[in-house]
Amino acid sequence: MVYPQTFEGYAVTDSATWNKVEKIEFTPKAFGPKDIDIKISACGVCGSDVHNVRGGWHKPHLPVVPGHEIIGTVVRIGDDATTNLKVGQRVGVGAQVWSCLKCETCLEENETYCPDWVDTYNDFYPDGSKAWGGYASHIRVHEHFVFPIPDVLDSNDVAPMLCAGITVYSPLVRNNAGPGKKVGIIGIGGLGHFAIMFAKALGAEVFTFSRTNSKKEDALKLGSDHYIATYEDKDWSTKYARKLDLIVSCGNSSKNFDLDGYLKCLRVHGKLVSVGLPEEPFTVSPGTFIKNGSLLGSSHLGSRQEMLDMLKLAAEKGIKSWHEDLKVDEEGISEALTRCYENDVRYRFVLTDYEKSFK
Ligand code: NDP
């Protein structure tokens, strides 16, 4: 097989023009004995792509090739790889491409919290080489972060699950969302729509909080049992006070985010896990916590085992993303980033037609 030494991708080169990309050629990290090279065929566009390229969290390491909801085909396998992948096999990659796999955290299957973890893009490996994402022809990844995709799941349907899906699946299972539990989900975007579907599939009673009523019908179709429009129902936090065991917040902004109100909706020692990562801090009054002993925290992606479990559950229950597909080129990526920023997506953009844009 003719094998590329460099890969091609669409890069943001200036944060001031964050929704414009240009095609670049880049050199991936040196091929390691446990690395897998993947020819990409689809990639979801995550809210994190927008935070990253706009420099909302920190100044990006430009040029940045974004994308961390990747589906593709294995084209090369390192000599020491042990996960039984085959050339030609369909696989996925999420928002993490490396961790040390040796520290106490990694050995406890908490590799997404390894102090040395490497994000799929806009990050660097310990040897200084740069990580490049999925708006690209190929990606090179350590096998631990490469996941076989069950045959019944369509590539474009499953791509967004590799980040958005696992990010909500992990805190749901780690906090026992299931039969008899009342689970709140805040914000119906890419993450939020999976959170509704997975909470329901796990057997919980689902309460969805959205700012307006515009997504009500969709939330109910996704499986939500209750719908609360927080900007339209002024008494929501009183009506739902002390009702929920767990809340997973998928909101990407802290603007008008009534954290005190959401915490009030928790039962004693209930937990609010914010997987959403707003660019500005939350404000909360300490007195809120004392009233019900509520707890506030976060969660980062999910372990390899959780990813495999999630994909199995999705295959068994027919769970798939609601997505709009756009061609992976300058126009398609610009539209996806712009509309994602404007909250004009139901509920994920997936970049497709890779074979037309890359040699
Ligand atoms: P989307 O843009 O698809 O969705 C964001 C949703 O947030 C909106 O649809 C909206 O829902 C809700 N929202 C926006 N502003 C507010 C507000 N002020 N108060 C309450 N809700 C609000 O983004 P994603 O789903 O892709 O990502 C969501 C967040 O999760 C991002 O910050 C992203 O960076 C983060 N993330 C975190 C990960 C992790 O490991 N923890 C991994 C991946 C992403 P509605 O219209 O229903 O109100």
Automatic annotation (TrEMBL):
Please identify the protein, giving its name as recorded: alcohol dehydrogenase (NADP(+))
**Span of domain Enoyl reductase (ER):** 11-351
The coenzyme or cofactor needed here is:
Zn(2+)
Give the record's family classification: Belongs to the zinc-containing alcohol dehydrogenase family.
Task: Quote the EC number.
Answer: 1.1.1.2
UniProt keywords (A-Z) are: Metal-binding, NADP, Oxidoreductase, Phosphoprotein, Zinc
Keyword Methyltransferase (UniProt): no
Please name the PANTHER family in this protein's record. ALDEHYDE REDUCTASE
Task: Supply the InterPro entries for this chain.
Answer: ADH-like_C, ADH-like_N, ADH_Zn_CS, CAD-like, D-isomer_DH_CS1, ER, GroES-like_sf, NAD(P)-bd_dom_sf
**Organism's domain of life?**
Eukaryota
List this protein's GO terms for biological process.
alcohol metabolic process
Catalytic activity, reaction form: a primary alcohol + NADP(+) = an aldehyde + NADPH + H(+)
Under the subunit heading, UniProt states: Homodimer.
Q: Does the keyword Translocase apply?
A: no
* Organism in which the protein naturally occurs: Candida tenuis (strain ATCC 10573 / BCRC 21748 / CBS 615 / JCM 9827 / NBRC 10315 / NRRL Y-1498 / VKM Y-70) (Yeast)
Q: Which GO terms describe its molecular function?
A: alcohol dehydrogenase (NADP+) activity; zinc ion binding
